[in-house]
Specification:
alpha/beta; metal-binding; 303 residues; Pase_PHOSPHO-typ; hydrolase; two-stranded antiparallel ribbon; magnesium; HAD_hydro_PyrdxlP_Pase-like
Length: 303
């Protein structure tokens, strides 16, 4: 986490087509020459199960975890995104990832670009390389075969992950942290949250945001259309390209830091005013020696 907050927001990024300019699953499949086979698997399996099965087939063909990492190193990542991440972090933002990709792909790309340390956490589909060297990818929310799934009724959420449920948890943690930091005399609002995304699965977490938060949908992508049809309570700040992403995001960060600084100055001024008003002149702190003689005396009324 960044060393200091100072009013800087919590920034939550989607990954595919938001941090990297591709779908990382498709990028790996295409790079390793398995596009047709993956398309065939998708005709019979949900996406998350299909990508896991595809990793199994690639392993059986002799492709290694290092081959997969190698393909991910070439995934397109704009220098504007790198600069935005580093600048937002330097300004005090906490950065998180909320993605329907998977931990192996995300970790490989962030490590290659030296960005892993800028993020305090990642919520995504878990992945690991098993003892045989085969990459396994599991759903974030287990579904099917007796599993309860995430329980969200919104049709834009895939069966393996409801980002809205994750966002609810993040916001709840933010509220609890704000309540714990509040003094008895004054309540403290949780940090502003900024969410960046592009796809249908990013709509549900956008709906969890409240007034004072921001959602940043990528123009020309499904999230933008969904928000246009039924906007969330938060402010909407779209972006068209990665230079635009950096400009819009850092503009929000600067504005939130300035707003917090102005509020702190106002609070400090109000506190100083209250202190001045409470100062008691020296000659009023104690009664003069003869003051009691000037006070009216109680009169006893006989029964």
């Amino acid at each position: 986490m960044a060393a200091s907050n100072g009013g800087a927001p919590l920034v939550v990024f989607d990954f595919d087509k938001t941090i990297v300019d591709c779908d990382s699953d498709n990028w790996v499949v295409d790079a390793l020459g398995a596009t047709s086979r993956f398309d065939e698997l998708l005709r019979h399996l949900p996406w998350n199960h299909a990508i896991d099965a595809m990793m199994g087939e690639l392993h059986s063909e002799g492709k290694t975890a290092e081959d997969i990492r190698g393909s991910l190193r070439t995934a397109p990542l704009s220098p504007h995104v790198v600069a935005a991440i580093k600048t937002a972090y330097a300004l005090g933002c906490e950065l998180r990832i909320l993605s329907d990709a998977n931990a192996f792909f995300i970790d490989a790309i962030l490590a290659h670009h030296g960005l892993a340390a800028y993020f305090s956490g990642t919520d995504t589909n878990p992945a690991h390389v098993d003892a045989a060297g085969r990459l396994r990818i599991r759903p974030y929310h287990e579904f099917g075969a007796g599993a309860h799934g995430h329980g969200c009724a919104l049709p834009t959420c895939p069966p393996n992950m409801c980002k809205g449920k994750v966002m609810e948890r993040i916001l709840r943690q933010e509220e609890e942290a704000a309540a714990g930091a509040a003094s008895t005399a004054k309540t403290r609002r949780r940090r502003t949250v900024v969410y960046l995304g592009d796809g249908r699965g990013d709509y549900c977490p956008s709906l969890k945001l409240r007034e004072g938060d921001y959602v940043m949908p990528r123009a020309g992508h499904p999230l933008c259309d969904l928000i246009a049809a039924s906007p969330p309570a938060s402010a909407v700040r779209g972006w068209a390209g990665f230079e635009d992403l950096a400009r819009v995001l850092l503009g929000i960060v600067d504005a939130e830091i300035a707003r917090a600084a102005a509020a702190a100055e106002e609070d400090a001024g109000a506190g100083a005013g209250a202190s001045v008003g409470a100062v008691v002149p020296a000659d009023c702190r104690t009664l003069p020696a003869r003051q009691e003689a000037l006070m009216p005396q109680a009169v006893r009324v006989p029964n």
